[in-house]
Design a protein that fits this description.
With 400 residues, this protein is of the alpha/beta class. The chain has 14 helices and 14 strands.
Amino acid sequence: MTTLRELAAYARLPLDLRSAEGSEIVLAGGRRVLDLYGGHCVNTLGAGDAELLAAIAAQWRALSFTTNLLEHEPRAAFLAAFGENLPPGDWLAFLSNSGAEANENALKLALAATGRARVACFEGAFHGRTAAAAAVSDGPPSGFPAAPFGLLRLPWGDLDAASAAIDGEVAAILLEPIQSLAGVRTPPAGFLEGLRALAHEHGAALVFDEVQTGNGRTGAPWAATSFGVTPDVLTTAKGAAGGLPIGVTVASAELAARAPAGLFGSTFGGGPTVLAAATVVARRVGAADFLAGVRATSAALRAAASRGPVAAVRGAGLLLGLVLAEGVTARALRDALLEEGVLVGTSDDPQVVRLSPPLTLDPVRAADLAPALERASARLAATRTARTTRTRATMGATTA
């Protein structure tokens, strides 16, 4: 007899998920939960978007997949639509399947183009779980015995430390413009501009990991756009194809020209069906009224979140971190909000809840977070009071 079980990699939530629609997930019995997590920034256009479905279905019928040795129209359409959203410049793109791959390719390019062997990265970073991406991430053990290049890990937001450490031996300065998993940590004023200057001074490639912050998430096409700092390389994935796997590494033509031929390759990257979906996302995200909607919803979420146990809200657009008051953990608030019909995410900071809903979330629906937070706060307070009462009763009985 043969059995197969899934390796226990995820601590799954106790939800009997049946379907999803727009910014809601539907559970057994028809109960609906407001999705303010968006599949880790993946569901850019929400669940079941009609235009996205039509594009995928039409492309699947016409040309579902073909080798990268053949040119096809979906690739040209994607490059045109995606390119419209990039900062001004002369760019080249390589297409892969995930954020980790996109970041690996960015590092490979920088190391090859500069002929150097060190990479500067930052405390709190997360760039993926493959060998090079894990090496520049700051988290649990990766399982790899050694990093594939020299590492220079710097404190987040400390430009003086970066200035003292970065030199002509550094091939790339890699960072997330907003550190999502670390608790939605935004860069201090002048930090990104300072890194841009350091990269230029020392001939290093400045690489922005926009796997989460790209594709309209910050209320602009890119966090680079939001902050007014243009890197040499930017990467994205997650929401770029609205729910299908994709990775995109975009590099300046000047940097790419210094890399040897044959450096990149992918079996599935750049397939026509995925690119048909990604073209829809790029066109929608590039529309001014769409991004205005993201900013309006962001304002509504910020207003709704400023209550109960939330001490501060940080982040940009629809990547927000709710910083909680002492005594309330992100995990506890997540569980309490789930009881109230709202799904949110946690982070590596136990005091920060993350919000990354579909970019199509309506501001009116976003406002529903306010009463849910108030009820969740009351639920947590009641739990703490009951726990204190039990503790005092136990102590009293022991004393007696």
